[in-house]
């Protein structure tokens, strides 16, 4: 009797233990499966920014205080309504672009190109030609594209997928969560300088330009090296200089600025936004001043205001042509000789970039006459 009872008890206990173990291990199964799954997911998670102070942008409800607000074009109304918003989250980041903060001292030149989300072909052309990330005899060049979000919601969704894919492949996209419009270009510029402070403070020089410019990278490096100074210690801001430029008052113009916003007759001297070369020192000064100067709809004129406030001045460089080169008639405007001595020329479409890059790189142009002055270091 007794052994039988014991046998039953033992069997019962064993069954309970086995069942419990089975149940327990089943309960445990979820984590053991999700662990590797989480790893897989992580590879596709794009860097999320947490170290930027992000304030949700609330529209200005007292815009009626702006004289003749209702008479302004819609884009100017949008500008005035959101002018105070200077902080937007990054949707796509490139935190390792400059090899962390300490590694960024190795970056000689950072190419920071303003681009609209849909301009995929321009970005590709730049990556394949003058924007290639490489070292020019020890001078390390890095490339980054600056973008916002398309205004149209449907388009924005599609374009975000495009930029995400590009970011995944090349790691060269910065995308902020604001509408990528003309009057928001200043916002793009200011956020770029903030990003520099955080991710790439050691870069010596910055080329800041549009995605439809052709840059003779070799000439740019030669010019910057010829300056023989530490970009983190000295001021440099060169491009196509505008002095005494009056604000455009015609409402239909892309560059329209109402008198109520800027009563002056002339902007402070500034360089055309198509292409500007600046030192890390000056980029830093702009970042500092922009915190104190309200946003302005014209981005390059805004940079002039920042420089003025910092007590720095922009300079002209013969080799930077934001309005293209004026060719004599009956001359092939595609003659590489015209571009041999240039640092940067505006208005190139993607296939032209490719042709010109090859022409400059693989043929030694037998140029007889000198069309433009050779690029000499401008004395800042
Ligand atoms: C809102 O707009 C009015 C009129 O332009 C301006 O005076 C005011 O400073 C703006 N408020 C903020 C918070 O920017
Ligand atoms: C970067 O450099 C600073 C100062 O030289 C040092 O304190 C810091 O630990 C460095 N950070 C990393 C991640 O190496
Ligand atoms: C700038 O972007 C903000 C945020 O997306 C938007 O609300 C605003 O309308 C834009 N401003 C202009 C002038 O397009
Ligand atoms: C070249 O430079 C000289 C002297 O600096 C100047 O007088 C001349 O106008 C320049 N030529 C062109 C084509 O810019």
TrEMBL record:
<dbReference type="InterPro" id="IPR002659">
    <property type="entry name" value="Glyco_trans_31"/>
</dbReference>
<dbReference type="Pfam" id="PF01762">
    <property type="entry name" value="Galactosyl_T"/>
</dbReference>
<keyword id="KW-0808">Transferase</keyword>
<keyword id="KW-0328">Glycosyltransferase</keyword>
<keyword id="KW-0333">Golgi apparatus</keyword>
<comment type="similarity">
    <text>Belongs to the glycosyltransferase 31 family.</text>
</comment>
<keyword id="KW-0472">Membrane</keyword>
<keyword id="KW-0732">Signal</keyword>
<keyword id="KW-0812">Transmembrane</keyword>
<feature type="signal peptide">
    <location>
        <begin position="1"/>
        <end position="27"/>
    </location>
</feature>
<protein>
    <recommendedName>
        <fullName>Hexosyltransferase</fullName>
        <ecNumber>2.4.1.-</ecNumber>
    </recommendedName>
</protein>
<keyword id="KW-1133">Transmembrane helix</keyword>
<keyword id="KW-0735">Signal-anchor</keyword>
């Amino acid at each position: 009797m007794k052994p039988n009872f014991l046998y039953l008890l033992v069997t019962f206990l064993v069954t309970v233990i086995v069942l419990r173990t089975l149940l327990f291990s089943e309960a445990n199964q979820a984590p053991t499966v999700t662990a590797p799954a989480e790893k897989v997911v992580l590879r596709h998670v794009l860097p999320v920014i947490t170290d930027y102070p992000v304030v949700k942008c609330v529209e200005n409800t007292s815009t009626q205080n702006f004289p003749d607000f209702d008479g302004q074009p819609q884009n100017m109304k949008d500008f005035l309504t959101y002018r105070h918003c200077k902080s937007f989250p990054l949707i796509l980041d490139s935190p390792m672009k400059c090899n962390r903060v300490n590694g960024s001292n190795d970056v000689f030149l950072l190419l920071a190109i303003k681009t609209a989300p849909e301009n995929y072909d321009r970005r590709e052309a730049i990556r394949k030609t003058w924007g290639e990330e490489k070292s020019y005899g020890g001078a390390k060049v890095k490339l980054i594209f600056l973008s916002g979000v398309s205004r149209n919601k449907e388009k924005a969704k599609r374009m975000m997928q495009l930029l995400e894919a590009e970011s995944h492949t090349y790691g060269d996209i910065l995308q902020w969560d604001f509408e990528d419009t003309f009057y928001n270009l200043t916002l793009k510029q200011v956020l770029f300088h903030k990003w520099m402070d955080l991710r790439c403070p050691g870069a010596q020089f910055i080329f800041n330009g549009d995605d439809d410019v052709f840059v003779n990278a070799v000439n740019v490096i030669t010019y910057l090296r010829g300056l023989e100074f530490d970009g983190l210690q000295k001021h440099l801001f060169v491009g196509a200089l505008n002095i005494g430029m009056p604000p455009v008052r015609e409402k239909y113009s892309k560059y329209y600025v109402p008198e109520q916003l800027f009563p002056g007759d002339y902007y402070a001297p500034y360089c055309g936004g198509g292409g500007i070369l600046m030192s890390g020192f000056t980029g830093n000064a702009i970042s500092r001043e922009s915190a104190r100067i309200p946003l302005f709809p014209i981005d390059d004129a805004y940079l002039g205001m920042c420089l003025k406030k910092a007590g720095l001045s922009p300079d002209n460089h013969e080799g930077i042509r934001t309005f293209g080169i004026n060719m004599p008639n009956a001359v092939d405007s595609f003659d590489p000789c015209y571009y041999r001595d240039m640092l940067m020329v505006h208005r190139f479409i993607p296939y032209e970039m490719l042709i010109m890059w090859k022409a400059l790189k693989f043929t030694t142009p037998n140029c007889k006459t000198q069309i433009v002055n050779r690029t000499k270091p401008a004395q800042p």
